[in-house]
Write a structure and sequence with these properties.
This protein is mainly α. The chain contains three helices and no strands. The chain starts with 18 loop residues before the first helix and ends in a 5-residue tail after the last helix. The mean pLDDT is 78.
Length: 84
């Protein structure tokens, strides 16, 4: 049996494309899919990664945003090359 192929959609460019809105829409779809199949580890992992990638809302950063910032700064420190 041949695998089904997914349709490839062109990504709009210019003012029509809002990456943050697309990421939030993806997160919403993943939440709905995860609620239907909570035992799906791959889906849960993708949802987690997507939620971590979401930018802060208009009300400003929350506790999760601050955790992400600290994690990023720690990673940046680990990867930095010392200067002598």
């Amino acid at each position: 049996m041949k695998p089904k192929l997914a349709a490839v959609v062109e990504i709009p460019t210019g003012d029509d494309f809002d990456p943050d809105a697309q990421l939030r829409a993806l997160a919403g779809r993943l939440v709905a899919a995860h609620s239907q199949d909570p035992a799906n580890a791959a889906l849960a992992r993708e949802l987690r990664v997507t939620l971590l990638a979401l930018p802060p809302g208009p009300e400003g950063p929350d506790a999760l945003d601050l955790i992400k910032a600290r994690r990023y700064m720690r990673l940046e420190d680990e990867l930095s090359i010392p200067t002598y």
